[in-house]
Amino acid sequence: MKSNGLICFLLFAAPILIENAHAQDTQRAFSNNIPLKTLKGKVERKDYHTYIERSFTLPDSVKRLRIEFSYNGKEQRTTIDIGLMDPARFRGWSGGARNDLTISAEDATPGYLAGPLPSGEWKLLLGVPNIREGIVSEYEARIYIETQTGVTEFSDKPIRAEAGWYRGDLHMHSGNSDGKCTSQSGKEVGCPVYKIVETATDKGLDFITVTDHNTISQANALRELQPAFDKILLVPGREITTFYGHANIFGLTDFVDFRMTNASYAAAKNWMSAVNNNGGIISINHPGVPSGEACMGCGWQIENIPDKVITAVEVLNGGSMKYSIEGSIEGWDQWHKMLNSGQHVTAIGGSDDHHAATIGTPTTIIYMKELSVQGLIDGIRSGRVFIDIEGKKDHFLDLSAANGENEACMGGTLKGEPSDTINLTAYVKGVSGGKIEFIIDGKLNSTLDREILSNDEKIRVNWETDDNRHSIYIKVRGKDGRLVLVGNPIYVEGR
Ligand SMILES: [Zn+2]
Ligand SMILES: [Zn+2]
């Protein structure tokens, strides 16, 4: 294909091939799975005002149970209620209000109790509040199980099916850990998850991850809220909070054992492998914040982590950004160190909001094949991501690099020969009068600085490569010189 430097900029076009994306579609694969069991039957007038129990046997090690229920005769006013018992206890009742339900250890459809899924005989409870004389209604309950941990979607289908750039916040806390809000009478109380979701929707965000410290008890609230907030993607997240550093994990709801009592990778490997092996991703949080009594375990101390274990670094954190956006308290040094060691690691931002107030500052914008949890994970992995420090909706940044026939977008790799000229095209919106800077291998190359003359600007520069591998990303500054946008690297391969 002849490169015109524009392949990266065909916005909202068909999804581009995402490098390193280990496509996993657990939830939908699960929904399409063959049922463990299908219970079929019929009710007629003799069943009027009775309860029917239908048994099924759950095997060991089930992580999630899902039941889809349907019946005919609704036009003749047949009504069949459903509920559920496990081998030991009542697990919920939804009457005639729902046709499907899901239960895992951490979250469940409202009306049902989250918790372990014991093996043995379960009972689907059917109640018949109405069936007319002479009517026979057939019902079918399809019982699905998932025995592997995986990426959890709280939405039955993507929030938006289109590929595109989606804006959100990847780091915040609710009252499930140390997030606080003000009560009716003015007291400081643990912040309920709905307040966070409301704040995020008020700010016009497309997605949030609620990343409470080590716990995932917020998942049940997210499960409940997602159908009501059907324009914003709610992503299960967690801040793995150790004595030697903090890291966000995205996508999983299962327990991840965060306990480590020394700073070695050997000690961290347990939880890091659990996340990666089950389709989640890890982002190192606020690595430059010093650890101490003011912020216990906040600085990142875990070294010698193998390549590909860490997917992202929180380069800008809303908490520390107040002090210095470009200083050593932020994640620049950690990110550059990893880039310069040859790792492909995506820079992201997160507000680290603890009061349902500053969500969206900074905003992270991710190119996703669809707005879904899996879309977000694949998008961060691909590296086609930028950070908008002030979270302004009219800001945009993209970068493409071309070398003859080849073109790479942010996160992609360009194969270059020594002395090849790389044509870099930056696309910036909403920062007229500002300046664009090219950062190569973590260092500003000021010979490539360019003024931004309009609010919709494509800037082209040429740069000559050599034998070595390189990373190239862009920073965008406003008129007053303050940093506004940060892109992600395009990688140029060496010999
Ligand atoms: Zn933290
Ligand atoms: Zn945090």
From TrEMBL:
Keyword Amino-acid biosynthesis recorded: no
Source organism, top-level taxon: Bacteria
InterPro entries registered for this protein in UniProt: PHP_domain, Pol/histidinol_Pase-like
UniProt-listed SUPFAM superfamilies: PHP domain-like
Keywords: Signal
Signal peptide positions (record): 1-23
GO molecular function: 5'-3' DNA exonuclease activity; 5'-3' RNA exonuclease activity
CDD domains given in the database record: PHP_HisPPase
Protein name: Phosphoesterase
